[in-house]
Amino acid sequence: MVRPHFKDMDKECFTILYKSFVTPHLEYVIQAWSPYLQRDIDCLEKILRRATKLVKGMKNLSYGQGLCNLGLPALTARRLRGDLIETYKIVTEKENIKIEDFFEFGVTGYSLRGHRYKIATKQSRLEVQQNFFSQRAVGRWNQLPSHIVEAPSLNAFKNRYDSWKSGAS
Fold this sequence. Notes:
Blueprint: H1 2-5, H2 11-26, H3 38-52, H4 63-70, H5 75-91, E1 103-105, E2 119-121, H6 133-143, H7 146-149, H8 154-168
Antiparallel strand pairs: 1-2
């Protein structure tokens, strides 16, 4: 839909259009339906590949180079960030969701490392459940530094996570 209306796009124009119109459709309820099958991931990334080719001077760049040049994160990074944001909202009770529905507080055993919001997964026997939000977010959440997890607000959490991630990579 963007292509016919915007023939010559520069990076700034594309970034605004992409973040405003394309990203919300790609990431709608991504925590509930997080693609884990390679064909689903390829389908979503195909859209982003095609979109990056719309920018002047980007046709000959690879997908990774195009994302880097535009300052856009890959699908896996966006999904991880979304999972961690949703986990933060549930753990800090910023959403009207009971934490017990998704997680168990406290990791088994006593540990002095990490932050005070350590969570454990609920046990699941089915293989398909391993890709549920409540299963895939726990490991990454428990690895976050305490200054990120103990942020006073959602925006502070996002900012701290983004700056930590950009410094870590």
